[in-house]
């Protein structure tokens, strides 16, 4: 049955508006910059044209570093290696095959494909499941060293330590290479600018902020990181192609660790996460270094190092922070940004709770070394049931939730969702089975707005545009009710980091409900909330289970709250399932009073 939606307070039939293209301003600025750079060789001397050609190629590389580090949070030193691979692929093809138009096209293809393939392999090694950002940075440190050593060991094929020189290149004059480099830089910067301001670009920041929450929204942060690494490696290889043609010489230093470190420094000085800051910073620093290395051959690196330290201390946001402060002081800089509207979408009919169990746990056991946390857990939960999991601290409640939502956790026994085993499934694949998880500590995207958080919660259903912004966000009515009851529907443009604790809890719950899960796992959703906020959350949960037939497993310490909303209560004690029964049976049992009184006295 097709799902219809209408805007809140408005009529309409489109569930989501078409992606909005970015405003014309960036394209106008890009066109003006391209025109100015096209005319620049007419007024610059040969030295300036030559140095700025190289600087703009390096700035294109800086854009790729900023996308990885500034937006996605991956500190990388490896872009130099991809640049060197592209440059050497170009030089070797032109040296041994010639520079006819056909072989030039082959050289271009090799310069892009070879680094992209290497980037795919490096991404796979760096971002396997459970890897950390530190591990990816270590891989990127090793990569330039390995590539440089391969160049040294290539003998006459790579020119060893002397590099390759004197090969035929594109039939362009110095001014032509300047304009080619300028066009590549403007195109790369504009494409990056459009992408990071699109809905898909929000996913980069989300991965940087909270990759675990991305996975539990059905996204694959590892896949995104691998794809981004491979794509930007290809862009770095393209820059290497232009560099090899413009300079007619390639050397091992072009792929080395020192050059990779310089790129990171240039991005930091310019202002990471701004795109324009790294571009302008790289061009300015490289051009200044070329001039100072002749006038002050022994002091220019010291001056650059001192400048780096001063900027990091005084302007942590880089040189772009100055421009940002000036821009925010202007009336146009204070104007509100675009915020999509919320629309209601029809939800699935309530599921029949009399059928087969939705969640089945058989003989689940979990240990950390010699410490047994869970032992022989058997449990079934049907659609429409709200099963509360209670017990003292250390009983294994959160560990059980982790085992239910991550099939890669090492545990014994079996867990199935709707008859499908979760063994070996990563969290995003378990979400695809219809599972949503809310964490004990509110897990949202601190750098993004409320609207962006909700948009990403719908990404696994609706996708994300890489070139524009959606005009509307289609949410199930249950999620809209949570937003309305907590006032978050009037705070869509508010950054999540500025929300109160209760508002963050409500936002996370709305994000999980927006997934339209069949089973929802909640770990102490009312922790730290006021009585009114607890009542709001309770009403939302009762509506989900009672009206929509969603199954819920709730970890909670507040027995009064549990008594009001639960259909069953399960008691965990010392890693074992001590009791499973109705609310009256469990709350009034002597065992529960003994367990909780013992925990209180302990």
From TrEMBL:
Record localization: Cell membrane
Cellular component, GO annotation: plasma membrane
SMART domains (alphabetical): AAA
Similarity-based family: Belongs to the ABC transporter superfamily.
Name recorded for this polypeptide: ATP-binding cassette domain-containing protein
Organism of derivation: Hansschlegelia zhihuaiae
TM ranges: 24-44, 56-75, 103-125, 132-152, 177-196, 226-244, 264-289, 298-319
Keywords, ordered alphabetically: ATP-binding, Cell membrane, Membrane, Nucleotide-binding, Transmembrane, Transmembrane helix, Transport
Entry membrane topology: Multi-pass membrane protein
Lineage: Bacteria, Pseudomonadati, Pseudomonadota, Alphaproteobacteria, Hyphomicrobiales
Keyword check for Ligase: no
Source species, domain of life: Bacteria
Main location: membrane
Sample GO molecular function, one term: branched-chain amino acid transmembrane transporter activity
Keyword Transmembrane: yes
Domain ABC transporter, chain residue ranges per copy: 359-599
